[in-house]
Amino acid sequence: MDPDAHSITKRETVYFMKTKAAVMWGETGEFEITELELDPPKDNEVLVRFDYAGLCHTDEHMRNGDLAFTPPMVGGHEGTGIIEEVGPGVKNLKAGDHFVTSWMPSCGTCQYCISGHTNLCDNGQFLLAGTMLDGTQRLHARGQSMGAVDLLGTFSQWNVIPDACIVKLEDHIPLDVVAITACGVPTGFGSAIYAANTRPGQVIVVYGIGGIGINAVQGAALAGAVMVVAVDPVEFKRTTALSMGATHAFASAEEAHEFVWNETRGNGAHAAIITVGLADQKVVTDAFAIVRKGGTVVLTSVSNPNLMLQIPGLELTLYEKKLVGSLFGSGNPHLDIRKIIDLYMAGQIKLDELITSRYSLEQVNEGYDDMLAGKNIRGLLEIAH
Ligand SMILES: NC(=O)c1ccc[n+]([C@@H]2O[C@H](COP(=O)([O-])OP(=O)(O)OC[C@H]3O[C@@H](n4cnc5c(N)ncnc54)[C@H](O)[C@@H]3O)[C@@H](O)[C@H]2O)c1
Ligand SMILES: [Zn+2]
Ligand SMILES: [Zn+2]
Q: Which of 40, 87, 223, 237 could, after both became Cys, cross-link 232 (CB 3.0–4.6 A)?
């Protein structure tokens, strides 16, 4: 890396690098573009330049207080870019490598990792805690130190992140498009393929067609569902769903219920996947009612921490209905991100069509306002340096 080009000054063994980032300074409130100082990478960390970042609803949950975190914090957990420098102990990565982030820095040794559930790695405890895996921090401004969402903070020109969060990419893979494979695509795709276990010939309902839900639609279609029913009050979301594998689309759960009930001769759907912006009791009740005996409701959406869900106990037992949560698509994020990129490069799933609008880093709040207004399938930040 050319230090002058990136305003780095080397002071004996410590680098001080400036980076512009979108910071949440309080427990709620807008992102504030702030100039930060960035420390060099420590053991098993890499200094990265972020070129693109996706706008996932989960950061919005932090901005509006649905998800508790330790402020101040740099936002963003979908990103692509280039490795600038590797810290001590980093293997198989080097400066110049292209990458997409994966927000679970799976340790490979906890009981969840060794049993194949890397999405549930014990390192999940660090995602919103505001420190690196060693408990220290690399980002500083206004006399305070801070962490980054999911140890990534992709709403930043540069950052230092764990090497376990890097999924290496070949140089020819377009960094803009694949930024959304960092969270939205594998989460939606895995909700359909792994958590709902979609099989050929099945009927699948997806509630909420944003960056996650559209990929549940694509995943269900790819797995061979005979009917993929999309539910979203926004017309543009429904027309997009129909162009990405949904066979039917409805504005309300009630319309979807009547349709599925008629089409399945009173049996119901095999699975219902909830990917609305914020989960509530109504959508869970609707989803539980639309699945057939032995059917599965997948709850992928984030809920307000005060939400206590109710489901009919007798249907759970006598109809063997299941209600399951799904984190990061219930798969192996590193593997699944690669798989999804292979599917995209082979023309079997769509990604370009999912990026509705592009914004500068400075426009991050506008991007989230557009998401809340139903204007975007996914918004993308193009980060200038
Ligand atoms: N479990 C995980 O690992 C994981 C990962 C990423 C995101 N998420 C969560 O998934 C959810 C979706 O994220 P996103 O980025 O796709 O959000 P988004 O805002 O882009 O999309 C949400 C969609 O839901 C629709 N909607 C809202 N209420 C609805 C309702 N009652 N019925 C039908 N549709 C409704 C909206 O119109 C919008 O199209 C969020 O809660 C997010 O935090 C979970
Ligand atoms: Zn996300
Ligand atoms: Zn682990």
A: 237
- 326 close to ligand 1 (CB < 6 Angstrom): yes
What separation in Å is there between the alpha carbon of 327 and the centre of ligand 2?
10
Q: Is there an atom of ligand 1 within 6 Å of 74 CB?
A: no
Q: Which residue, by CA, sits nearest to atom 9 of ligand 1?
A: 301
Number of the ligand closest to the Cα of 189? 1
Cα dihedral 21, 167, 56, 151, rounded to 10, equals: -50
**Per-residue pLDDT for the chain (385 aa), expressed as one digit of tens each?**
444 444 444 434 455 799 999 999 998 889 999 999 999 999 999 999 999 999 999 999 998 889 989 999 999 999 999 999 999 999 999 999 999 999 999 999 999 999 999 999 999 999 999 999 999 999 999 999 999 999 999 999 999 999 999 999 999 999 999 999 999 999 999 999 999 999 999 999 999 999 999 999 999 999 999 999 999 999 999 999 999 999 999 999 999 999 999 999 999 999 999 999 999 999 999 999 999 999 999 999 999 989 999 999 999 999 999 999 999 999 999 999 999 999 999 999 999 999 999 999 999 999 999 999 999 999 999 999 9
Q: Is 61 in the pocket of ligand 1 (CB under 6 A)?
A: yes
Q: What is the CATH number for 316? A: 3.40.50.720
Its domain, for residue 144, covers: 3-182+351-382
- My answer on whether 207 and 318 are in the same domain is yes
Contact 270/198 with Cβ under 8 angstroms? yes
**DSSP secondary structure of 147-202:** EEGGGT--SBSEEEEEGGGEEEE-TTS-TTGGGGGGTHHHHHHHIIIIIS---TT-
Domain assignment present for residue 95? The answer is: yes
Protein residue whose Cα sits closest to atom 18 of ligand 1 = 210
